[in-house]
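Input sequence (413 aa), recorded before submission:
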Amino acid sequence: MTSKTSGFVGGLLLALAGAGNAQAAWVTTWAASPVPPSAAMGPMPATPTFSNRTLRQTLRLSAGGKAIRIRFTNAYGQAPLEIGGARIAILRPDGSEQPGSSRMLTFAGKPMATAAKGAPLVSDTVALAVPALAKLSVSLYVPGDTGPCTCHAVALDDTDVSAPGNFTAAPFKAESKSSARAFLAAVEVDAAEGARTIAVLGDSISDGVGSTPGANRRWPDLLAERLAARGGRPWGVANAGISGNRILSDGMGESAMTRLDRDVLALPGVAAVIVFEGVNDLGMGFGRFEGPMAEAMKSMRGGKVDAERMIAGYRQIIDRAHALGIKVYGATIAPYKGASYWSPEGEAARQAINGFIRTGGAFDGVLDFDKAFADPADPAAMRAGYHMGDHLHGTDAGYKAVADSIDLGLFER
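Predicted structure, token format:
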């Protein structure tokens, strides 16, 4: 081949690659942030281990698209993760598979793959049209011993675990169930031109604790429904909430400062981030713990917490997102008076931080979740019926109030 011909072919390949990239509009339509494995603590079970099992997980997407791919994760694996097969299918309202929607996944054209220790693994593109708000089944066969899995602890949907063997080819009867979301990090769709994703950087209140399991009543789910009903530009909503998560310190999951790049900024299509974290920093930093869990809770306090350090953390998140052209919306910290780790000192810090979020001018916009949740008779506490009884986590009604309070005008139509 002459240099002239070589140059022509190279230019043609680059042009074709550019054309392909221009045609694809990959956005994140679903996400679940993984947490490091842990031992059992109180009501929280130990991180599960799987071997020679098929795992079937149900999830609901936000934005739709004409093609789809699945992002698996072995972020906390102590060894490479072997994938012996994987399949997806769109689900009908009754939970059965939509005829003709089943697809076996491939990885570089092959049905099996290995996710390196600490790494993600993205499937090949599947030419399958999925509508907005579709429910998806993802079946994954792990032939070897996974060790404690890279999981998202609070799925609010059961993960079906098979008897020994590969059952990815068709629906199967579960031998057992797990409450963890295993090895799934995100779902991406090739959406309509102009589509974007909103990522939610949050804790258990964004994770949906207190909402009806299996009903998709988390406030990010309800935001996705509002955006889909509005029409216009498609918006995916990627929920990167982790129960127990904090801005400044590790605990249940790495701190928001640590995981921001992996769980939010690296997601395809992200144009906006909603930051709704901080109550666990205040509760763990200022709470007065008593009872059988007191010592364990005290050991998890982390570094010193005050409003100034918290505000510096928010500013770091804003600066890092702005450097990538991503807008950042600050959600005020919700009231939590009556919760087990509430204190007057924590309340004073909450008021100072919420004042910064509302009037500091650092965020691109403000979502006043404090106001949406608050009891008018005692604004330091959540309204009755809006919390699950612990004065901290929402109910379906509370999460609806929060989702309804969001000005959709912040997100271009």
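Checked by second reader. Confidence is low (pLDDT under 50) at residues 1-22.
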